[in-house]
Here is the input.
Amino acid sequence: MDNDTMNSIIAFFDKEDKLYSEKSNPDWSPEKNEGFREGIAYTVEMLSIIKSTTCD
Here is the structure.
C-alpha cells in the first residue's frame, strides 16, 4: 500500500476517533461505548505503526 493511501486511511480513523470521543450511542452500554472509542484509538495507533514500518 502506498504512503498516500495509508495517510488517507489513518486520517479517516483519526477523524472517527475525534468524532466519537465526545459522542455515545444511546443504545449501547457505557462500557460498549468506551470499548468502541478504545478500539478506534487502537486502530489509529496500529495503522501508524504499520505505516512507519512499511511505507517510510
Q: What stands out?
A: Helices lie at 3-20, 30-54.
